[in-house]
Amino acid sequence: MASRRARTNATPRTRTDEAPRTRAKPTKGAPSRRAEDARVTSKPARRARGKGPETSDATPRTRRLSPDARRRQLLDDASRILTEEGLEKLQVSALAERAGVSRPLVYRAFPTRHALFRAILEDFTDAIDRRFHSALLHALPKGGIEAIAEAFIEASCDVIEEKGAGPWLLLDAPAADPELARIGWETFTKLLGPWQHQLSVFTGSDARRAANDLRVIVAAGRAALFGWIDGSISRAEAVEDAARSVTALLAAFAARGK
């Protein structure tokens, strides 16, 4: 009797405060839950699981770089835009998109578009200067102004191949932008400034005349390289033409006062 009474007073297993569970009928034509899960968890995402910090290709992330590394990246990307698309296409928005960063980040590195141009040109001419001084170690033993001129032209060509022709062409900026033209000439003058005194001594001219001679020499050398840049002649031919024109001008300027 006691055992029967205990069974009668036992708490029923089914709770009366819960609604009975019913299985929803699938809507005709709707994908099953398993199919939805399969679509949400794509194969790249499933492969990414268990591989640590790697993420799927669907969610790329911009790498964090130091300020110097980010500046280097922006200058390289800006040089590519100049070379591939031209001056008008080099806008802050285009550079930010190419580098995968925000426009405010670009402005933090280069407050104005002209500041960006100046940085590109200084980076380019610094590279020429480094290569030129390295080439002088081989050129000076040969002697002669021709060897020095050829060393400078070869150094310029090396940097054009490394960074693209865009910055080189920017050095001779169009007069439509006087500020950019001024920046281009200032940058080139800084590169060639140490040689202006040597040119004055070689030609016997005063500083004012030597500065103008330098402009003429630079214009002739640049013109000779345009044929290589546009693909009409080889680099070797362009270097030969540039070296001959520069040395011919030097000889002519030296003979001017005689």
What can you tell me about this protein's structure?
There is one protein chain. Helices cover 69% and strands 0% of the residues. The protein is mostly helical. The chain has 2 domains: 48 residues, Arc Repressor Mutant, subunit A (Orthogonal Bundle); 133 residues. The longest helix has 27 residues.
Overall pLDDT level: 79
The sequence of SSEs as H and E is HHHHHHHHHHHH
Largest sheet: none
- Number of helices, counting only DSSP H or I runs of 4 residues or more: 12
Write a short abstract of this structure.
This protein is 69% helix and 0% strand.
Q: How do the strands and helices of this protein lay out in sequence?
A:
Blueprint (H helix, E strand, L loop, with lengths): L1 H8 L23 H8 L2 H6 L18 H19 L6 H8 L3 H7 L3 H27 L5 H19 L1 H6 L7 H26 L3 H23 L5 H20 L4
Question: What are the main properties of this structure?
Answer:
Arc Repressor Mutant, subunit A, mainly alpha, 258 residues, single chain
